[in-house]
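ARCHIVE CARD
SHELF: 3
SLOT: left
DATA:
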Amino acid sequence: MKRILAAILTLTLAFTLFAAIPSLPAKAEGETVTINVYNWGQYIGIGEEDTIDVNAEFTKRTGIQVNYTTYDSNETLLTKLETGGSSYDIIIPSDYMIERLIKKDMLEKLNFDNIPNYQYIDEQYKNTPYDPNNEYSVPYTYGTVGIIYNTKYVTKTVDSWNILWDEDYKDKILTFDNPRDLFAIAEFLLGIDVNTTSEADYQKCYDKLLEQKPLVQQYVMDQIFDAMINESAWIAPYYAGDFVTMHEDNPDLAFCYPKEGFNFFIDAICIPKGCEHKAEAEAYINFLCDPEISGQNMDAIGYATPIPEAKEYLSEEFANSEVVYFDEATAAKSKMFSDLPDETFQLMNDYWSKLKVEGSGYTLYIIIGAVIAAVIVAVVIMRVRKKKLYE
């Protein structure tokens, strides 16, 4: 009897999922549609360690193939979209970048008739500041930034961003390789609004980050996984969801929400302007919003789902994680990024570029190169003069 009931439940679930997939445009016989998905690294279930392979399951259910590539920051994504050369059907930017893309008219409005699973998105993640009318995006995950550290080596109390400036951990500190997240750390530490437009504020943050630079082993994004798991680095700011994944591989790692405050973000699924397969892209969005798929996907990547019903499909440990599903007191310390005016956006990027070069050794190389060039020129001149003397 149990087997019969299980079979009935399985068939019922399969029918429900099938019914939730919107109809797609008719294709010519033998034609295969491939959508191009551009997402963050380490940000979708790929079938490792008995987790769901999201893209393979989508293809199995719809027949639509997925060409999947990754980026490591919102700024990389923006540059790729602005320079062209690639056609994406799906992108998953963060809140402030979605706001920027909307202003630049770089996103398609979504047809929610093709995304019936949008009904499962929690109301608190709708009507957001970056997409107030719910026209361009569907939440994928939400999360926070904090400090990851190795308890074997970091013996001091970790409750502040100040730990990233501690000389006792020189050459064992990693930090963000993108300007928005990196400057936010200095802004929180200095008590500056993370959405400031003041040039004086960015100068202060630059000075603070320059002060830290001699202590930093490297600026990283996805490289953080190997460095922290293998203990070549001991302390780093990064995303809470990724900490969960790292902690599974190295139980000595711990996570802290700094007392000065930290970033809260929503990453959402969008369709770039002029995509080639909009209906198929919307089918993909709908698929990602299925509670079972979202739950299994989030269980694989360690991030929080904006779909309450998806928690049913999470492991008990993950569903009860206080790092991922934080309380109201913790949330009260967080702050969302807003899009910055173009001139402020450029100012921050200019300071970021200057920071990467300043004190990195490039200046010394330039000086040495100039001296060598001067010596070569002097030698050539001397030889020319000697030649003329003996002629």
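SLOT: right
DATA:
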Amino acid sequence: MNIKINKKDDIILKILHYFITEEDYRPVIINGLDNEIWLENMENDLKLIRINNNYIHNNEQLKVDTFRAKNIMKSIKKSTLSFNMNMLNLLLDTGDNVSIIDNKNIETIKVEKISDFKKNKVVSEFFPKVKDADLDDKMDPVEFFKLTEDMNEKTIKNEKKLAKIFSKKKPTVTYALIAINIVMFLICNLYNPSLLELFANNRLLVKSGDFYRLFTCMFLHADIVHLLFNMYALYILGSQVETYYGKLKFSLIYFVSGLLGSLFSCVFMSSNAFSIGASGAIFGLLGSIGYFTYYYRATLRGLLHSQVSYVIIINLLYGFLIPGIDISAHIGGLIGGLLLSMAIGIGDKGRKTDEINGIIVLILMFIFMIYMLFGR
């Protein structure tokens, strides 16, 4: 049986195979487009790849096509919370009189044969591995089906990774923390109010040796409104962070962020002030969610417009509008969550240099805050 392969289909498949299997791009689903394929990889300098198989017969049509591509790119940029976005625009069917015009953030290339892609200077600059890729103009039906199978295997493998990360897990550590906070609230407010002063954070008492206060203050709350605000935030954010990072990393993020928040509170609070609440640790979860969302922003489009956005707004308003709120603990916890998330990494998305930098900066931050507290 003879199988005929269209030349453009062969080129498209080989380019797709390269980007999906070698450069970790994945398809973007965009409704209403014909004969166009979009790929994205938020880790690359060229975050978007567009393969356009529509015929462009003159420069005016090219301008219209480029304008439309820019609008789609702006939409993806907005939905992925990206500050900057560049695109490689591959045109597979253009008239002889079409001239490529330079466009900001868009590198456009005419591809009539696979060597036009492989030997292009822009492609070589951004994708050094392309020089060793098995890309030639030979059309082989056996190779055609093998490339399709390779891409399917790569896609399935990536989907399994994402499914493992985002699969619903019971947030047992989050529930345990909520339970401890509620129990401590009941004990302190109904049976022994003096415990609030005994375990609350205070600069002079910590400097005199009551280091435990940096930790115990995270489980105390002044009133029912304070408790409800924090426990609602912990329920929403804790469930997310525990699912994404796992129980051990979630626990580290929560407690280390809380401790850094307590240190910030000690350094910046007045000498006779007492500070209590889980807000420092909770803002650490916010920082952690922010860091995770940045790396998985292509997958988590709309996350910050869901429940999490309401938690952020509520906590910020609560912190700035209600008198007596310890803003310094919030800031310290937020910094702690960001830095610790860098330090512990986020699986195959994280970079080793980010983890090393996160560890170093986090340690320096703790040393600096301890010096500010005890060295003055």
